[in-house]
Design goal:
The chain has 8 helices and no strands. The chain is mainly α. It is elongated and about 100 Å long. 24% of the residues are buried. It comes from Mucilaginibacter xinganensis. InterPro entries: TPR-like_helical_dom_sf.
């Protein structure tokens, strides 16, 4: 009986194996040397259309919520800020203003930290509309004034025009009664459980 040691067995297997040159040692350990493909951007969920059923709202809400959770978990804060704004728009369509305000405020905090002034201004305008719909015209005016000051400071002329239109709309709606079909978070949860 003939047997080989383990090292001899490996030698027989790899004796005809082609050897490649050694990999060059990296001396620059900075992140700047890594080339990032900027052409590929993460997919954002925009312009969703709904058939106004509770199921479709819930499906879109779950999809956007999962994307926002993913972005927050992996610290992609700028995209998470836009996800929160999308959730707020979804809640506005359902007259769930308290939840919409909360998500807009979270989006606003993140967009300010990321120095995304255009998104901050858009969030402030949405907040002002929600507050005016609820009858809180003084705070709505404060939000629009803050957005106006920020847009003036940055020189955003298109945003200034939009803010002026929103200010006129709020002054016009001041005489109207606040919305009565407002759904709050607890009421929304209990109605979905009842179904």
């Amino acid at each position: 009986m003939f047997s080989l040691t383990a090292s001899a067995q490996w030698y027989n297997i790899f004796k005809n194996h082609q050897r490649f040159p050694l990999v060059e040692q990296v001396t620059d350990h900075s992140v700047a040397r890594i080339k990032v493909n900027t052409a590929i951007k993460p997919a954002k969920i925009h312009n969703f259309t709904l058939d106004r059923s509770e199921y479709s709202y819930q499906a879109v809400e779950n999809m956007v919520m999962r994307t926002a959770q993913h972005n927050m978990r992996f610290r992609v804060y700028n995209d998470a800020s836009y996800n929160f704004s999308e959730l707020a728009k979804l809640y506005i369509q359902q007259n769930r203003y308290s939840e919409a305000k909360w998500y807009l405020l979270q989006s606003n905090i993140i967009s300010r930290r990321q120095n995304d002034d255009k998104h901050t201004i858009a969030n402030l305008m949405e907040l002002a509309i929600i507050k005016s719909e609820l009858g809180d015209y003084a705070q709505a005016q404060q939000d629009l004034t803050e957005a106006h000051d920020m847009a003036t400071m940055r020189g955003f002329n298109t945003e200034l025009t939009a803010i002026d239109k929103k200010m006129a709309l709020i002054k016009q709606n001041k005489n109207n009664a606040p919305k009565t079909d407002v759904r709050y978070a607890e009421a929304a949860m209990s109605s979905s459980k009842a179904e």
